[in-house]
User: Fold this.
Amino acid sequence: MKKVFIVGGNGFARECYYNICLMAQNDPEIVFGGFMGHGGYGHTVDYLDLQKYYMGEVAEHKFKQNEYVVIGAGYPVLRKKIYDELKNRNVSFFTIHIGEPLRDSVEIGEANIFCPPFVYTCNIQIGNANVFNGDVIVGHDSVIGDCNFFGPRSQVLGNTKIGDFNQIGANAILLPHCKIGNNNKIAPLSAVYKGCRDNSYWAGNPAIKVGDIS
Assistant:
């Protein structure tokens, strides 16, 4: 049995819950364990009609061998914080992916969330704790780091390199051979042709830098 808990979050955590329920329909070993808050992020009221599944703060829970965690926070920096703290506690992470198992030509880390549908090709490397939030496309030979958030219908085309903690807006396109650094925000509907370095906002087609992130 795999008892899966969702740690942190509110709206996105509820989306994770329903994806876990879909996975459980095809795998009776998967059982939902409940929601847990993280340092005040994720309270009982945040889960609306699912409040009955709130179990308290994750810091107070002692994980057992058959218990796993999904990070229910969407914001990259918060996902990183939760991931690091639970990793230091030797907690096991659960990957959300619905459908056929990912092919051998895709190397993935742990704690990733692939909201359906997830479209990919071959020779792809994906790190830890990323979110692909529905209808995301990842092209061949792309390399993706840790704790990135890809909005619905965003596209990562072939040979693209992406660092850590980036937020890619809905319907944004990263064109082939694009290189994205760390901690950037790409606005929805933007088209990034060459890439960007670190800590910046980008918007438009072609995307240009419109601000800095401290």
